[in-house]
Amino acid sequence: MTLRNRLNTAFNRYQGKHRKVLTVCSAGILRSPTAAHLLASDPFNFNTRSAGVSDEYAFIPACQVMLEWADDIICMEDWHAAQIKARLEDIGLGAKDVKVLGIPDNFEYRDPKLVELMMIKFKEFYPNNFPNDQESVDSPI
C-alpha cells in the first residue's frame, strides 16, 4: 500500500469527531497499549493507537501515517518524545504537541500501579473529561 493510500485510510471520515491519540513507548507492547486502552475507555472515549519508537523491536512502529493521524501524541519517556519530535520535524509537523508521562519501563501490561500513574497524568492532560466533584478516578482495566 502506498503512503498516499495509507494516509487516505488514516483520515477516513467515518472515524467521527473522537480525539485521535497516539501513545508511544519503546516497543509498543506494554505501556503504550495500556495507555491506549485507558484513553479509549470512559471518561475519555478517544480513538487511540499505540506504537513503539524502536525500529529494531517495535511491534507496531511509530510511522509517518500514525504521526499525521494523531491529534495528540503521548510518550512514556523523554527520549521517546525526542525521537517522535525528530520524526515530526522530518515530515514537516514539528509544531505538533508531544506530551510525556514520565513512566519508566518497569511495569507489566495493565499493571494496577501503571494504570494509577497514567490516570493521574491523564487528569492533568484532559481535565475537562473529569467532573469537578470527582475526587478519585476509577480505571477501566
Strand content range: 5-15%
N-to-C series of helices and strands: HEHEHEHEH
Helix content: 25-40%
Order of strands across the biggest sheet? 2-1-3-4
Largest sheet: 4 strands, parallel
Shape assignment: globular
Look at the helices and sheets and give the structural class: alpha/beta
Total DSSP E strands: 4
Oligomer: single chain
Number of helices: 5
Distance between the termini: 35 Å
Low-confidence stretches: none
Rg, Cα atoms, Å: 15 Å
Mean pLDDT: 91
Written overview of the protein:
- The protein is α/β, with parallel strands linked by helices and 141 residues long.
- It contains five helices and four strands.
- Strands 2-1-3-4 form a four-stranded parallel beta sheet, sandwiched between helices.
- Helix 2 (31-40) crosses helix 5.
- The protein starts with a helix and ends in a 16-residue tail after the last helix.
How is the secondary structure organized here?
Blueprint: H1 3-10, E1 20-25, H2 31-40, E2 47-52, H3 64-69, E3 72-75, H4 78-90, E4 98-100, H5 112-125
Parallel strand pairs: 1-2, 1-3, 3-4
Helix pairs in contact: 2-5
In short:
With 141 residues, the chain is of the alpha/beta class.
